[in-house]
């Protein structure tokens, strides 16, 4: 294992632990000596990693860490580029810009040799054959999901029937030709899927819903024995 690979493995090990973890345990996980571990932690801290702790106490990686100029494998770079290219083709405008910004940040900290690999990646995404049909700003939905806040929406189903709903949104699915907003519907007392191109009005009520997003996502997944995400009628 090269030094850069070892440092990346150490970062990944720290990310897996949500509480302080001893140096001895980290060294055992990585198959290195405790002296090497202390040296690697010091190197990561010097590169900007927010690692807190000390020998005998334990270490934890605080959130918000900026990527240092570490090595990616060729396969990892291919996966990154494929994902970014898919988002740039099939996501909505703000997400496309965010993907481009994120890719630029990653490219800025890569060594020159890896920048060439990134720019010369040969995995391509097929052409986009449709235009965005939403009349509402999906940023409103993403913000509500992130903050665990209720949404009020006006919806038109496939038969042309209009309804107003208050939902607890917790997921937004991006498919090649449609996008689906998933939430708990207060009117129907059940999980519902809404095609975003059929939402005619969308308002963030700025009121927290009573469950955690992760809990709702887990409960919803348990109901999805036949995952087709059929929009609400």
TrEMBL record:
One Pfam assignment: HTH_11
Domain Helix-turn-helix type: residue ranges: 6-60
WYL domain: residues covered: 140-203
InterPro entries according to UniProt: CBASS_pafABC_assoc_protein, HTH_11, WH-like_DNA-bd_sf, WH_DNA-bd_sf, WYL_dom
Name listed for the protein in its UniProt record: YafY family protein
Organism: Chelativorans composti
Top-level taxonomy: Bacteria, Pseudomonadati, Pseudomonadota, Alphaproteobacteria, Hyphomicrobiales
């Amino acid at each position: 294992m090269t030094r850069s690979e070892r440092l990346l493995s150490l970062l990944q090990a720290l990310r897996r632990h949500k509480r302080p973890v001893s140096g001895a345990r980290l060294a055992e996980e990585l198959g290195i000596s405790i002296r090497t571990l202390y040296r690697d932690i010091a190197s990561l801290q010097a590169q900007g990693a927010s690692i807190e702790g000390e020998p005998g106490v334990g270490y934890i990686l605080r959130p918000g860490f900026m990527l240092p100029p570490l090595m990616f494998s060729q396969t990892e770079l291919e996966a990154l580029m494929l994902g970014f290219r898919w988002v740039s083709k099939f996501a909505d405008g703000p997400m496309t810009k965010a993907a481009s910004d994120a890719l630029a940040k990653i490219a800025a900290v890569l060594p020159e040799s890896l920048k060439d690999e990134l720019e010369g990646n040969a995995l391509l995404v097929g052409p986009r054959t449709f235009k965005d049909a939403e009349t509402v700003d999906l940023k409103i939905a993403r913000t509500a999901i992130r903050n665990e806040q209720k949404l009020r929406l006006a919806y038109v189903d496939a038969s042309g029937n209009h309804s107003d709903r208050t939902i607890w949104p917790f997921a937004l699915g991006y498919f090649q030709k449609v996008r689906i907003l998933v939430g708990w519907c207060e009117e129907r007392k059940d999980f519902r899927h809404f095609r975003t191109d059929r939402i005619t009005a969308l308002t963030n009520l700025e009121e927290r819903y009573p469950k955690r997003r992760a809990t709702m996502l887990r409960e919803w997944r348990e109901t999805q024995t036949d995952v087709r995400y059929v929009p609400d009628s």
